[in-house]
Amino acid sequence: MIFYKTLRPFKAISFDLDDTLYDNEPVIKKAEQQFLAYLNNTYEKLAELDERRWNLYKALMVKEDPSLKHDVTAWRRAAIQRVMIVHGIAPVHAITYSETALQIFIALRSEVNVPNQSIELLQQLAKHYPVVAITNGNVDVEKIGLQDKFQFVLKAGNGFKSKPDIALFQQAADQLGIQISDLLHVGDHLNSDVFGAQQHDAQAVWFNPQGSALNGAKLLPTIEMTDLQDLLKLL
């Protein structure tokens, strides 16, 4: 545990989810592969759709509508619909089919194994502080068994811009009845989590299990941890 700044008293703890409380990267990689296989096998007109072409469609959608980057669910829905329409599926059917495909992807990307250590950590922290979640992702929190471990879960989208924007941090503070400066945010991403929290006066714990360098950090974290269990030492 490395302190870059003096830790001020705080009144609540917020957590990022993906790659903070569980390893999300292999889950997403597998989900994307299974998602494309579903499209290939279900729709004859999409049989040749590969990862490269799919990524081009996703890039095109956010280029046309930059606001989609703040809502990964809406972004994927728009990309699926565009792919289907371009490949000859009627728009009225593309709307219905894309919703089915979207829900299949969310189920696949929610095949997450949350370590018992993470669950026990949240339970211990909750005895001392309100604990909430702030995520840019679209994991099904109930499916992965974390719904009841937080007072509430906030996700980007539906009017909330994604981290590092202030929106989710402000909403969390408002729902907790505190100032943003009273929040200790824990996350793995130097921009979304560390910079996002600290530019809005919250304190930030950078979870860095790989011991990566701080290269490119816009702001230093309050604390760097390679093991989230070190949070218990702050109690």
Structural overview:
The protein folds into 2 domains: 2-23 and 114-234, Rossmann fold (3-Layer(aba) Sandwich); 26-109, Four Helix Bundle (Hemerythrin (Met), subunit A) (Up-down Bundle). Strands 1-7-6-5-2-3-4 form a 7-stranded mixed sheet. By secondary structure, the protein is α/β, with parallel strands linked by helices. The chain is built from 7 helices and 7 strands. The chain has helices spanning 25-42, 51-64, 72-86, 91-109, 116-126, 166-176, 190-198; strands at residues 2-3, 12-15, 131-135, 153-155, 183-187, 203-207, 223-225.
Number of spatially distinct domains: 2
CATH topological fold name of the largest domain: Rossmann fold
Strand arrangement in the largest pleated sheet: 1-7-6-5-2-3-4
CATH class of the largest domain: Alpha Beta
Strand content: 5-15%
CATH evolutionary superfamily of the largest domain: HAD superfamily/HAD-like
- Output the helix-strand order: EEHHHHHEEHEHEE
* Shape-level CATH architecture of the largest domain: 3-Layer(aba) Sandwich
Helix content: 40-55%
